[in-house]
Each structure stands twice: as C-alpha cells, then as structure tokens.
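Anyone up for a design puzzle?
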C-alpha cells in the first residue's frame, strides 16, 4: 500500500518538472527547483521562527507552524542576475549593461531579504514557474501554498545559493487544508 506521504513526494517531483519546463520569456533558462523533506523542513521552520524574532515579523513564525505539518516543500528560485539583453528598463536601469554593473556593485545588505537588483523578465519567469508548479499540485489534489517566507530562510540556510529569489511551496495531504484554518 502506498502512503499519502509517498504520493505527496511523487507530486513534489512532478512539480519540479512543471517548474523547470514552464515557459520562459526570451527562452533563457534561469529556474532552479528542488524538494526538501524531513529534517530540512524542521531546519527551515526553526530558522523561520528565529527570523521572526530577529526581525519582528510574526508571519514568519505563523508560516513555520504550518510547514512543520508538511510532507514536502518544493523550493523554486531564479538566477535574477542573468541578463537577457532586452534593455527594457524594468529593473530600474536603462540597459542590461547598467543592470549588470549595479548587480556587481550592490551586494545584499543585512536589511534586504533578497539580493538585488533582479531582472524583471527573470522574476516573471519565476512567477510562471511557480504557477505551473502549484497547478500541478492542485491537479493532483495536494494542498499547497506559495510562501515567500520559506524562500527567504532557504537562502539564509544556503539551500539555493545560485538564486537571487526563492519561494517555497509547502505540501500537505490531510482531511483539512492546513493552510486555511477555520475557527468555529
């Protein structure tokens, strides 16, 4: 007999494929996706609670409680420092060349959750990849929620060092969706 947890892990693998094969603007691949389980989830939750205390952001702690109940978490990130040569200005710089100089001269600070600047086209690719992944989870009836909080601490724990932005998608299979608590 196959357990619900094993099914969730299988769906997590399908979600990684969905994210990796999602359409990308201008055809340049910069998406990285992986799955974490067990002890790595506990590490993420503990780091989220510590971050909540350190920065005074309670929602990190709230999300930590939810992910402790999860069977798997899909992490999806983007190499937002990559340039596509569009010179669109969406990043705040006139050209991709100016953007590249800014990336090199402005390392992340203790106050920023994500290093920047990021190419807006690459960030859009991340959004499309996230949408493809959660669609896959939904089609397989696995409860999920996109959490930027998970991505922030995943980067602090060096789980996705090549990425400039990461989001986490915790997955759960139970009789009640843990991501939308109801009070009666």
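Challenge accepted. My sequence:
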């Amino acid at each position: 007999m196959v357990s619900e947890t094993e099914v969730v892990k299988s769906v997590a693998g399908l979600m990684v494929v969905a994210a990796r094969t999602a359409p990308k603007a201008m055809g340049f691949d910069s998406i990285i996706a992986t799955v974490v389980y067990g002890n790595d989830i506990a590490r993420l939750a503990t780091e989220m609670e510590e971050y909540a205390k350190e920065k005074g952001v309670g929602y990190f702690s709230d999300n930590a409680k939810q992910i402790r109940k999860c069977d798997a978490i899909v992490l999806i990130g983007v190499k937002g420092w990559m340039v596509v040569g569009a010179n669109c200005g969406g990043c705040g710089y006139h050209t991709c060349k100016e953007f590249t100089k800014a990336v090199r001269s402005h390392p992340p600070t203790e106050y920023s959750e994500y290093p920047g600047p990021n190419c807006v086209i690459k960030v859009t690719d991340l959004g499309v990849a996230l949408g493809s992944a959660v669609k896959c989870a939904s089609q397989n009836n696995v409860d999920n929620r996109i959490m930027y909080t998970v991505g922030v601490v995943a980067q602090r724990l060096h789980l996705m060092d090549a990425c400039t932005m990461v989001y986490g998608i915790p997955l759960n299979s139970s009789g009640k969706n843990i991501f939308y608590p109801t009070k009666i």
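A detail worth pointing out: The mean pLDDT is 93.
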